[in-house]
Amino acid sequence: MDLRKQSDQQSTKLILIVFVISTLVLFLFASLRHSLFQSGALDLGFFDQCIWLLSQGMIPRSSIIDIHILGDHAAFILYPLSLFYKIHPDIHWIFLIHAITISSGIFPIVSLSREKGLDIKYVYLVILIYLLSPVLFNANSTYDFHPDIFAVPCLLWCILWAEKNKLIYFCLTLLILVSCKAVFSLTAIALGIWLVFKNKKLMGTIAITIGIIWFLIATQIVMPMVGSGTGRFIHRYSSLGDSYLEILKNLFLKPELILSKAFSIDSLTYLLLLFVPFIWCLKYADITLLIIILPTIIMSILSDDPQQRYLANHYPLPIVPILVVMVISSINKFTQRKKWTYRFIIFWSVLAFVTMSRLNLFTGEYLQSLDTWQANNEAIALVKTKGSILTTHEIAPHVTHRPQVKLAFSNLNPNLEEFDYILLNTRHPSWQSDRNYILSLVEQARNIPSLKLEYNKDDVYLFSKKDL
Q1: Where, by residue number, does the polypeptide cross the bilayer (predicted)?
Q2: Are residues 144 and 44 in contact, defined by beta-carbon separation less than 8 angstroms?
Q3: For residues 400 and 144, what is the distance between their CA atoms, to the nearest angstrom?
């Protein structure tokens, strides 16, 4: 008995060590990307500015895209993050919380694995498979911050509490899930359908009810109340109809529209890449779990925006925990077939991570603007007040702790006299802009009497109001 207790303590200690190491690694990669000026105003700058505004007691309406934080996706989960900004307003809180959230998924994974009677070495293997998921790494380290990340541990905890028949814990976790994003109400409904299918009718009914009620509250009350709504996402599905009602009708009246998208090369490639890291377990897994991820997959396949089928984005995040649960449900059967499968699974997981993660960006693309890195930082250090600023997409997340931040996009024609600061990098004009446009803004700023050139080095320009 003492030996077993000692073994459990050693296992717990090792799992905690893995959690800490994973958190540090993910935090460092996200921070490194940001420090290299590879993060962006959309969406990291948007969330950072809104959370900062909340911490200052101001209305969390971002000037970057003129949207209230709740108008984006009714993500109430973001409100508590402002408490960290009250301690010290720093964007690195977002990176740390992001990393902790991903790494914390190992705790419900351990409990679910033990519920299924997995040997401790297979528990460690499942943790490795989870942490080596390319989608998790890419969402953390190469694609800014999104509240979708909170859905990953939430779904794992929901399934665990359902397995253990912990109704109160299940309901609380479900409420957290839907507070991450309005669209996760559909995931909650799908989870409920799966639970009913698994003869957990009470929990299933609760999940379906909460999903429906919260979807209606979020889309019909919360988002319209703050001056937004789901209508701004309609363009992603314009090929299926001009309104959500028309799209819903076409799902039944024009099935050829749906089938043409579902069986397109783009969609089939998306599905193949999504399942490749876990393809070895599908034969033995509980395939009924796929019910839970159907809303995410269907929305991605039907979207006209290819970004929703790009695995480096945040959109596939709710799929990862379900695939990991499928691994847990199948790994015993799979490993009983052949003795070499344990090593094969490790090899396959590492191979999938190496080939599908965007780790290579840190040795290539992310280093291309190092020639202006020092100048960017020196110019930012001269922005002393919380005055309004016009800047580029990649510089914006470094100066978002102020009420007014605008982006120098080439399709816009800003009035430069309205800004206290204008910070532009003409050598690396960044996303949604070009060198000629940024140079034209610099020339305009030179000719405005109320502005002075505060800094000019390596094609980085900082103008400020003379009376600051």
Answers
A1: 12-30, 91-110, 122-139, 169-197, 203-226, 258-278, 284-303, 315-334, 340-361
A2: yes
A3: 14
Dihedrals φ, ψ of 454, to 5°? -85, -30
With CA atoms as reference, report the closest residue to 135 among 305, 323, 344, 266.
Answer: 323
Q: Are 327 and 126 in contact (CB under 8 A)?
A: yes
Residue 381 to residues 41, 442, 458: CA-CA distances in angstroms?
Answer: 18, 19, 16
Per residue in 15-62, pLDDT (tens digit) is: 999 999 999 999 999 999 999 999 999 889 999 999 999 999 999 999
Segment 342-367 shows an average pLDDT of 92
Listed in sequence order, the residues at least 6 apart from 270 whose beta carbon sits closer than 8 Å to its beta carbon are: 300, 301, 309, 311
- Is residue 40 packed enough to be buried (19+ CB in 10 Å), middle (13-18) or exposed (0-12)? buried
Do 170 and 158 contact (CB within 8 A), yes or no? yes
Q: Which two structure tokens, joined as six digits, stand for 81?
A: 């993050």
Nearest of 392, 401, 402 to residue 372 by alpha carbon: 392
Strand order in the sheet with 460-465: 405-407, 389-391, 421-425, 460-465, 451-457
Q: Which residues contact 464 (CB under 8 A, 6 or more apart)?
A: 382, 383, 420, 421, 422, 451, 452, 454
Cis, peptide link before residue 242, omega less than 30° from 0: no
Alpha-carbon distance values, 8 to 17, 127, 161, 323 (Å): 14, 16, 22, 26
- In contact, 122 and 332? CB cutoff 8 Å: yes
How crowded is residue 386: how many other Cβ atoms within 10 Å of its Cβ? 14
- DSSP letters of 161-182? HHHHT-HHHHHHHHHHHHHH-T
Q: How confident is the model at residue 244 (pLDDT cuts 50, 70, 90)?
A: low
Cα 55 to chain centroid, rounded = 22
